[in-house]
Specification:
Layout (H helix, E strand, L loop, with lengths): L11 E5 L6 H14 L4 E3 L17 H14 L3 E5 L2 H9 L4 E4 L1 H4 L2 H11 L6 E4 L6 H13 L5 E5 L17 H9 L5 E3 L1 H5 L5 H10 L4 E5 L17 H10 L10 H41 L7 H17 L4 H24 L4
Parallel strand pairs: 1-2, 1-8, 2-3, 3-4, 4-5, 5-6, 6-7, 7-8
Helix pairs in contact: 1-2, 3-5, 5-6, 11-13, 12-13
The structure holds phosphoenolpyruvate and manganese (II) ion.
Amino acid sequence: MSNWLSASSRPLLISGPCSAESREQLISTADALAKTGLVTAFRAGIWKPRTRLNSFEGHGEKALSWIKEVKEKTGMPVAAEVARPKHVELCLKYDVDIIWIGARSVVNPFSIQELAEALTNTNIPVLIKNPVNPDLQLWIGALERINKAGIDKLAAIHRGFNTWNKTKYKNTPLWEIPIELKRLFPKLPVICDPSHICGNRTMIKEVAQYALDLDMDGLMIESHINPGKALSDKNQQITPIKLKKIIEKLQIRKTTSSEKEITDTLAELRRKIDMVDYKILEALTERMNVVKNIGYLKKNNKITILQIKRWNNIIHNRKETGLKLGINKEFLNELLNLIHKEAINVQKRIMNDNNN
Ligand code: PEP
Ligand code: MN
């Protein structure tokens, strides 16, 4: 997989409505987007995967002729979602330039395999959304299957995940997952879809900015000439004018600096971080060694591992100290829980080891 998008100017921007609703809606949205001069490719959903029956499911083939008209009229490359082999065949017939595979299809390796077969010998660029559930392996599996079909113009789209705990997002970003994908496949372009992460218009800019600050390669943002009247994802679509305002306000930061003084200072600060990290690891090892001694003592004297009173004291005391030191409360909570979990695991191993 190579970064076939890297030559494009940043941010690469794919925009257009969630669904192609009518010829007029598509053409007026595309005209307004083309006028901004910021859009790399136009998107529109032709077949819509809807959760409940009786929702708008797209116009299918008819809408492909509208999207073709958009391409001819504006010169923008066009992108559409495919979920079945027939969709691939029709997209190719109507000269769609880029296709994407939606979050609901990526969860199913059978669907992906069928799409991979339909895509063999096409070499059309394919964008693969993350699966709805937070499973990096499933995402990678889809990328691999499509890549094996000979598609090397591949990119991943991060659109957030459906998680059990409700957050302010419609789909929780879980940024660590796309970051890990980037670490494993440094050349694979990753595009962020703030619209489906947010589920509303108000947070799009902040999520888009954060994605760029994580060095993502581009953005997919839904836009509609009249968002209030949209037949799907009404709350998250923005007008082309609003899109322009958001994009123009985004800060585009570099991955590095060409000034020696800055790179030297950065290197110095990173050396400090390396030293501090080493100290943290040493301190954690020391702590776990004490935990082991406590484990042996408890085992020999038939004392339970968990002592809820002691654990409550630790939480209270460490939180107080940590907060005074200026450590973020949520981070402190997670850190203390992680350390406690490992302390329990270490003692559990000692209790159950009959050789000691
Ligand atoms: C879409 O892009 O309109 C869409 C249906 O997205 P997702 O697959 O991310 O839900
Ligand atoms: Mn949508």
